[in-house]
Model the fold of this input.
Amino acid sequence: MRQKKMKINYEVWSERLTKIYGDGKEKLEAVSKIDLRVAPGIHGFLGPNGAGKTTTYNMLVGAISITEGEAKIRELKAGSVAAKQLIGFLPQDPVFYEDMAGEDYLIYMGQLGGLKAKEAKRKAQEWLNYFDLFNERDREIGKYSGGMKQKIGIAAALIHDPKVLILDEPTANLDPLGRVDVIQKIKELSEKVSVFVSSHILSEIEQMCEDVTMINHGKIVVSDSIKNIKKSFVSNLYILDTDMNEKFLEILKNEDFISKARIEEIDGKIHIIPKDPEKLRKIIPKMLIENKATLLSFHQPELSLQDIFMEIMSKKEDDEK
Amino acid sequence: MKNEQSSPTKEIKPGAKKLNNKFFESLKTWFGKYISIKTFIIIRKTFFDICSLKKIVITIIAMLSLPFIFMLMPTGIDFGLISSHHAATIIGIAILFPVFFWTLGIAYTAIIGTSGSHLIAEEVSSGTMLILVSKPISRIKIFLGKYLAVIFFGMLISFISIFTIGWSGVLIKSGNIDHFISLIPFLTALYLYSVFIVFLFTSITMAFSSIFKKSRTASIVVLILIILSFLAFMIIRTLTGALYGMFQIYHFDLGYHLGNVFVLFIETLNAIPPSAAWQSFFGQMTGVYSLTSTIDPDQGINLGGLEKTNYYLPVFSLLIWILIAALLLFFGIWSLKRREISV
Done:
């Protein structure tokens, strides 16, 4: 009963969702038993190329079959016509009918989404206007720029008033200006519909999302709000910079309240993960005086999602080894 | 409550109505599963994709080229002296062979094959199908939408071709428009046959389009089938002679079955009377007729026309291939339903 209630609260929900391609020696587990919990709002789906993001999306929209487990869009079985009525989907590198005019394409997509011809036309013009494509409505999509195509793709996903917008790498292959534009539009749209957006560019996700799910090798690595993820990581990393970092590193490594300490190659500073942060903060001034060292900086950094992701990935790989 | 018990008729009527309603409701639900307004949206889009004015013109010219050559051959008959029915028979016989082998044969099936083969395969390989299947429409409707678009396209071009052939046949041969009226049964038979052909070859083409990754592969397979049906088996039949019947090769000879169905429509509509003038050549090409005349066993009179080989009853050929076409249609739907759509 409790589980059912959970499903209702989530826009996208999955339990042990798995996709296996091939069998025997050629068996490939592209997605492995993932439990998705996408709440209303804007939710990021992160992972390197080949992590399983697109496969997951394709299962959610019913393009490919689910090998094991289940997935739901709100309360409805993912892939069913009823569930597809609730979603709007923009695939990675979307392909359009190149010889169709932008407006005609949107009307066609609207009608397939269940709109009547007049309504589809009205909505198509609304979205064309919203995406600044109204003046290009009669042009063939094949003659659109990459950014325009991406916008028409999002408009096509939105035209039948879905409740959840699933966007697979919406900023891929766009120039920096195009990226900023599309991200801005997605942020605006998230006020009206829930958005489940994937990217391997973490800074973009950081700009757009409140919650994220990180995936690697077909498995969920972490799923939480960005705030919580950052909090848990920020609290445990300290960066120390003195005029004798190497000597300090040796001293710190021998202390039992230090979990990990190393000199980062990029900045040459000592990155410390303590077991007891308070003890570290107290002992550093004492150690500086004892060793007659000059303190250049000592602080807790504000980690970017990229840093955290790299940290999690390297930790996972270490664990697997 | 009392009233209802005392009046049995009143009890039965709502029950019957309910039953009727239930029947219509379930029929509506069943029908709605496969055909809806969204199916028509797909039909319209696909139809206009495959049916540009330029394509229609080129197609019709290609389909009419051979019958026109046959029409221009002189018959040596003064059409002013013969009956309208007789004139229609002569015109029909003059164009029967090119219409069967070319207009509604090789050309027609090749056009259907090439028009339909890319509809599923290309959309899947290019990636447009991914967007289509993510929309709230079932794959059955997507398939049927495309399938019906090819059927309608085929029916349109065959109608234009047959009408043009009939009209110009009359104008070229006799110049008497009244003869066109007498030619209508023959043209109707041709059209019914073309509907059968479009149903069969669209099913074949769309089934291949559903299973093959490349549209070119689907096209090639359909073209091979056309060559086998209209040319290869004809050569095999001629070369093997009696062995053809002995080894029952006719079971697999689509050309024979098509000829058999063609003859069924001609006979049923009394379109052209049986005569060796067209049956001997048609028999050699399709294997439907033997080269012996139909003789009344009691009186020894030649009844006109040649004896049929009767490997299959014509109606059986029709039913078998309709069944095969229907199975291929279901197979195509089933393949698309199971197909993994990803780029």
User: Anything to note?
Assistant: The first helix of chain B runs from residue 2 to 6. Chain B is about 80% helix and 5% strand. Residues 1-10 of chain B have pLDDT under 50 and may be disordered. Residues 189 and 265 of chain B are 5 Å apart (CA to CA).
